[in-house]
Design goal:
By secondary structure, the protein is mainly beta. The protein has helices at residues 2-22, 67-70, 76-83, and strands at 37-43, 51-55, 58-59, 97-98, 105-107, 110-118, 127-135, 140-150, 155-162, 173-180, 188-194, 200-207, 211-212, 216-219, 221-229, 232-242, 247-253, 266-271. The chain contains three helices and 18 strands.
Length: 273
């Protein structure tokens, strides 16, 4: 649908340009907006419900429930919704997941209030988390819903960091940083142990909660990762592949107090590019 609209827009622009060219005083305007800022969204709010993410009042992420694919030609009500507002899932983006497959969404540069709103029918639209930021042109950002979800207030925490993706010149190296989305933690250091060489690598300096470290070049390979507080390793992740020429953010997340394995401190690695 987007492609069809884009082609139609190009045809419309071409027609207008042709009409303008027929006028002896016509001026052909081929300019178009070229600016944009980019942001992606993560739900690391422990035990939080699935959410859809918003920029001001604009919904940025949602998940289709698959009904449109199975709609019968006689089901005109479903088809009408599929071609207008769509039929989305009420599951949203759950814990330890990235919206839109961790892809960036493009927005016009400017000031925004972002929110993770409950996708389920019960409490639908309630804002679990909010954070505000000014997005600059041609820059990349990540929104992290974090903390431990409070079932009484229906709130979790959130923060936004810039993703200053480095220029790649050596494709034998990968670029990695730590994002600290682990509530209650002291500044943490990311350590990688190369499974082939056995050589440990310290990936940047200490990173405080709600902040991100700098991207550090490491030899491409498979690593076992751990984040340390002082000399104590807390969250870990094994057999992580860092491909040369790519950029990665490794997030520390979870709940120190939880006895549920899935909610305990852990690491999640996602590619920025």
């Amino acid at each position: 649908m987007h492609r069809s609209r884009f082609i139609a827009l190009l045809l419309g622009v071409g027609s207008l340009a042709a009409l303008a060219a027929c006028d002896k005083n016509g001026v052909q305007d081929i300019s178009s907006p070229t600016s944009g800022a980019y942001i992606r969204f993560f739900n690391f709010g422990v035990t939080s419900p699935g959410v859809n993410f918003y920029a001001n009042s604009q919904k940025i992420t949602a998940i289709s429930n698959g009904v449109c694919q199975a709609a019968l030609p006689t089901d005109t009500a479903t088809i009408r919704l599929c071609t207008t507002t769509g039929i989305e899932s009420t599951s949203g983006t759950g814990y330890n997941a990235a919206a839109n497959g961790a892809l960036y969404s493009e927005l016009a540069p400017g000031q925004y209030t972002f929110a993770g709103q409950i996708a389920a029918t019960t409490d639908h639209g309630v804002a679990v988390s909010t954070a505000s930021a000014t997005l600059d042109d041609a820059k990349f950002y990540s929104y992290y819903q974090t903390g431990v979800y409070n079932t009484s207030t229906k709130k979790a925490d959130a923060f936004i960091v810039e993703d200053p993706i480095p220029t790649i010149s050596d494709y034998s190296l990968a670029y990695v940083r730590l994002v600290n989305a682990l509530p209650g933690s002291t500044p943490m250091v990311l350590i990688g142990n190369n499974e082939t060489t056995g050589a440990p690598v310290t990936i940047g300096g200490p990173v405080a909660y709600k902040s991100a470290g700098t991207f550090v070049a490491v030899p491409a390979g498979v690593y076992d990762l751990s984040a340390t507080q002082g000399t104590v390793a807390v969250p870990s992740l094994t057999a992580v592949s860092f491909v040369g020429g790519h950029v990665y953010s490794v997030a520390a997340r979870g709940d120190y107090q939880s006895t549920v394995t899935a909610n305990k401190p852990g690491l999640t690695s996602t590619a920025n590019r």
